[in-house]
Design goal:
The complex is a heterodimer of chains A (about 375) and B (about 350). Chain A is α/β, with parallel strands linked by helices and about 375 residues long. Chain A has 13 helices and nine strands. In chain A, the strands form three sheets. Chain A has a five-stranded parallel β-sheet with strand order 1-2-3-7-6, sandwiched between helices. In chain A, helix 9 links the parallel strand 6 and strand 7. By secondary structure, chain B is of the alpha/beta class. Chain B has two domains: about 200 residues, Rossmann fold, CATH 3.40.50.970; about 130 residues, Rossmann fold (3-Layer(aba) Sandwich). In chain B, the strands form three sheets. In chain B, strands 3-2-4-5-7-6-12 form a seven-stranded mixed β-sheet, sandwiched between helices. A five-stranded mixed β-sheet of chain B has the order 9-11-10-13-14, with helices on both faces. In chain B, strand 10, helix 9 and strand 11 form a beta-alpha-beta unit. The longest helix of chain B is centred in the C-terminal third of the chain and has 16 residues. At the A-B interface, helix 5, helix 6 and strand 8 of A face helix 5, helix 6, helix 10 and helix 11 of B.
Chain lengths: ~375, ~350
Amino acid sequence: MMGRKRMAVAGDRPAITWRSGVLSSLTSEELRELFRYLVLSRGLEERLEHLLKQGQVVGDLYDGRGQEATVVGSAFALEEGDWLAPSLREMGALLTRGLDPRMLLLQYLARDGSPSAGRDKSHHVTIPHLGLLGPIGPLGAQLCVLNGVALAFRLRGERRVCLTYLGDGASRTGAAHEGLNLAAVQRLPLVVILIHNRWAFATRSDQQAAVADWIDVAAAYGVSAASVDGNDVLHVYDETRRAVDRARRGDGVTLIVAETYRMYGHAQHDAQEYVPEADLHEWRARDPIDLFERYLIDSGFESRPSLAVVKEAARRELSAAVEEALSAPMPEPEGARFRTVEGERIPVPWTRRAAVYEDLGQPASTRP
Amino acid sequence: MSDSKIESGRQNRPPTGQEAERGTKETTYLEAIREAMWEEMTTDPTVFLLGEDVGTYGGAFKITEGFLDEFGPERIIDTPISEAAIVGAAIGAAHMGFKPIAEMQFIDFIAPAFDMIVNFAAKVRYRTGVGAPLVIRGPCGGGAHAGPFHSQNVESYFANVAGLKMVAPATARDAKGLLRAAIRDPDPVLYFEHKYLYRRIKEELPIDEEIIVPLGAARTHRPGSDLTIVTYGAMVYKAEEAASRISEEDGAELEVLDLRTLRPLDTSTIVESVKRTGRVLIVHEAPRFGGFAGEIASQICEEAFEWLDAPIRRVTALDTPVPFAPPLEEYYLPQTADIVDAARWMLAY
């Protein structure tokens, strides 16, 4: 179907490796698609950084740049009807699952038309028709909830698969332990990508767990395990695809440890002075988009101009999306009282007497 | 329904000949909970149960005995000791159109699931528009000499969290009807069943009537004109005892309101009663500080202050953990005499 040759790479470590089984299952269109999601994700986060500095993004940004291969490659291995729950740096996974960048921009700008209608931040979005389950602030919890989605698939006899992400930090939460363990004993159709990006906020991963190799944590749960180069999108895709197939066959959970590096601090407010510059230098040289671009060109799948066309299309798409998001209105303040679901205003708290708050400040009626 | 199951007592107990004749069946509070789940699971394939020891053992209190045989391991799921994972899985399945019942072996064990309940289940419809119609139920309450970790009443831990509903039945009828309504409700419902009432409360329930008790409506347990006791759960019976004693000894008539649902709170029924009696005593088994009584008193002050003829008073447990030794626990828990004393003070005010 396609040319197959092992990459010859300059330097002492492989830039990106060719792995049997990957290219035979990806068409050249799919390779280009992978590249598109990588650059779209990178571009969107660059735009968001810019918008944050302009005071348009509300709150903060948890930057996923540098980890795009891990999230795009894994999300790309899912099929329609599968579900995915992001953690906090998985912009590329949401885009890969079909979420319109405009929706993400509206969400970060806290605008009315956003998936959460301004009620929640960042990529906390649950969109059933895209199979997206939003996380909550305390990470790891989404794994427990995703188990329920997987349980529902099984109860209905559907061969659908769930996938989620845990950072090395989030993987140490009680929820992550409980969730992974329940999924394992129930043999749920679940794939967990453990993103070993070396930092959980300002705490090193060797302060999170005393394992020499993070793949060792899988043994405690009795699940299948794999380790991947998280900056090699094809490696990530390949192992995730195997795990997804295994889950779909009914062979249970796989934990994939993706080795990568957090490049931009916990969030934009964090200048990460505690991160050794040598580490950043080393990993910057292994930027996942540069690696894949070089690979596509060197292996003859794409030319530099053809990839430039992809980049330009993504740039245009994002420019239009930013313009549209900036013109969207903020939610009406009194919208804080309710959530509209399918046209119905549901008051919060879910009480028949939500209207009592309107009466505050008014004197109570007097005794006759 | 096979005969062998009936003989082994693992099926719901069918009415006796006499019961069938009179059209009612003697039902304990525990049986009412069991029957509510059994009936909902029988009629609705989206209802399923997960929790610790609910299957093979039939639940720590044998509420779900026979469920595994009847409904199979797919719908009666014995889980690891992982309350967060139990509630989390229930939320996810609820997103997908199921109506899960998550059992806490003791309601005290809800603490490890706190994040799942207050941060995930309670907020998810508001945040995302996608609801989580699940029930989390478990045995609460003291009087069983079970110590600090098997006796608590946890409603106030959750009272400040928008998006949760909470029920606490006192009667077998309400235990059944509220659970069925809770299972059908589109939002997360915490269902607090009082373990002291499990086998002590027996009622004749109609055999042919489908018992469903809507959430959010209080019930007048005993009508009266001189003072309103607002209470719920096992305290309904202590309040009733106090009301009988005061009726006999003082000639005053106390109204006992059983809230049944704690959230949404039926403020209008409380206010209507207070406006009639002019005096309100709030009784609950949970500790006083930050307890439900504080919220109820505030609402009465906002809506019926001018009708009050005496200060609002509270009879509650102590602000301590639930002690273990029987004399300590008895001292800790609100007793009938405490209610009588408080009511007399108010009547004399």
